[in-house]
Task: structure prediction
Amino acid sequence: MKELLSGNEALARGLYEAGVTFASAYPGTPSTEVLENLVQYKDDVYSEWAPNEKVATEVAYGASMAGARSFCTMKMVGLNVAADPLFTAAYQGVNGGFVLMSADDPSMHSSQNEQDNRHYARHAKIAMIEPSDSQECKDFIVKAYELSEKFDTPVLFRMTTRLDHSKSLVEFGERTEHKIPEYEKNPRKNICTPANAYLNHPIVVQRLENLAEYGNDCDLNSVEMNGTKIGVVTAGISYQYAKEAFPEDTSFLKLGLTYPLPMKLIKDFASKVDELYIIEELDGFMEDQIKAAGIECKGKELTGEMYELNAQLLEERIFGKAPEIKEVAAKAVARPPALCPGCPHRGFFYTMSKGKDFVCTGDIGCYTLGSAQPLNALDSCLCMGGGFTVAMGMSKVFEQTGADKKVFGVVGDSTFFHSGMTGLAEIIYNKGKVIPVVLDNGITGMTGQQENPGSGYTLEEDVANVISIEGVMKACGFVNIFTVDPQDLTAMQEAVDGALASEEPAAIVTRRECRLLKRAEKPDGICKVDSDKCIGCKMCVKVGCPAISFKDGKSIIDHTQCVGCTVCMQVCPVEAIEKEAK
Amino acid sequence: MSDVKSVIIAGVGGQGAILVSKIMTNGLIQAGYDVKQSEVHGMSQRGGSVTTQVRWGEKVYGPVFGKGCADLLIAMENMEAVRYADFLKPDGVAVINDYERDSMTTASGLEEYPEGCLKAMQDQFKTIAVDAEGIAEELGNAKCMNVVLFGALADSLGMPDIDWEQVVADTVPQKVRDLNIEAFRRGRAEAK
Result:
């Protein structure tokens, strides 16, 4: 019986079947579900959430060095964080097979940029494998480990959102155990002194030549000859779109091993067709190399280098076939994402939205939504950890120019452990006038409730040591640390005022559980507007709660959405909102 | 590819579109079709506009499709029907939960919720509109709105050999089985 699995679910199954015994990751859409699914095999595979992607890569590489087949995964921007260990691991090679899955996000469904991580394989000089459906996610990961060990190389396993999160039918196989050999010290290979690196570089170059030769005749790459008029070279999800969009007599060279490119195979394929197209999402990664090899082809000038493709877009851009669309008379307005009803971050951002001279730099997570209307409470969001450090740079300039601004740097609890702690050190060490704020909701929220070093549990659901955020702040040298329930607006305002008034370095920790947390207490009631008392001042609307709307001059609370957090009740000037027991 | 059927489900994060697609795909797999389904996770789920796509046939390639390609648009809210109307084929069918859910911008008065969404759809497409929200409330659990809506669309899938009621029963958790079977029946009857 075949099962309908997402690429991430299938990949988890493949890791199990490949005899992997060690996996580490930092959650990031669209990669998160791989380890969430791998943990079902915890008797055979150790899985963990690492504090960040660099750590995940390093520990997984250490496991490989000790002989295990090991794995790490991250969203594409996570590989920017993890690039340092990866580039040197590329020089040193592996012991047990080592694979890193990068989940790219064309069209940026849940990401801050649209980077094409295939360039990392070329840049780091390592092998890259790209599957094109869930079955291949499972099958190719097994081959990735064989390739990693055969060629002594880390493998970049590159997926995209539509592979990670789309489901197709998968047939399971059996697990093959990988025997971990006895550890032998190998300083020549594993210590990256300049002298060793100097000797490793030619090995890396030779390895790429060997891989390219292997790619000309391996089962990761396949040729489907259906005719001689049009040929398509493609890989990954683009293969599916191209199969649908091109005429039936089109021939395909479908690549699974996409770095290094099997140029002999491509040349041979090109010679058999009249016209050659390269179909790939985002950059012309394959096309540029194929053109540089002197092979005539078309691609990016037609398909474009931004956003996701699909069959209809290819038909339109390549064959000029526009879709038949009926226009409807009504027009939808924006429906942007918002902080959930009862989100603990709301009280903090509401308080921030009232300070006219406040500058508030945000970070990556649910709390990026503090930027949304009507709260509009953030000035920036750059990258993981940037909440503290962008604040630092801005505040230094405000000091230089004498601008009267009060700067708050905001990160969440998981982000704090990811890369916020070094920002704290920066603020204390270089005497910043920044108030760091950690919004601690006890979980990694945006990616769907993953444990972290502050949540009390591990991925495998063991009880874990909780690292005290306040303790870390104290150790860095913060003196006045205000821990507050952000849902209590009076206390929240007092904490902000207290931190601003402090002569000594001050910080704020807002602490309340995410409403979506399974461990969270059930709501004890919901809020209701007494429309006779409501004066239509819209104060409650300004807290930006999806459960509140304004109709015919009065506020209404949707009882199916409200969880009784009372933030709206606290801002109502005429006590028109009451909480009723549920 | 002509035998491939394509469905797009549009709604607001948290309305339960995933269960609708799960019932659909369970039934189609049992019937022996090649099935692909695609959804988006992360940021957009937080009360934003979300879509799920389901495709089936003898052989399906792309897990997603583009504009003008859907045989069926299922909208869990009126404005979301309009937003994704251009995914429908000219002779496609829309099944709509006749319900208006404010977005953050309309709730706070920055923009007006557009008028006449349902009528705009009815003017252009064969449209089945049901008050799935109201029926679910009548049944005592607003959360089964999605299954009421599934009932309303089941016959539009054009798969008369599949016993959809049984698939619903097998897909939902045991403790809400009876409720959801009733929700399915009410939705199906409403669409006739």
In short: DSSP finds eight helices and six strands in chain B.
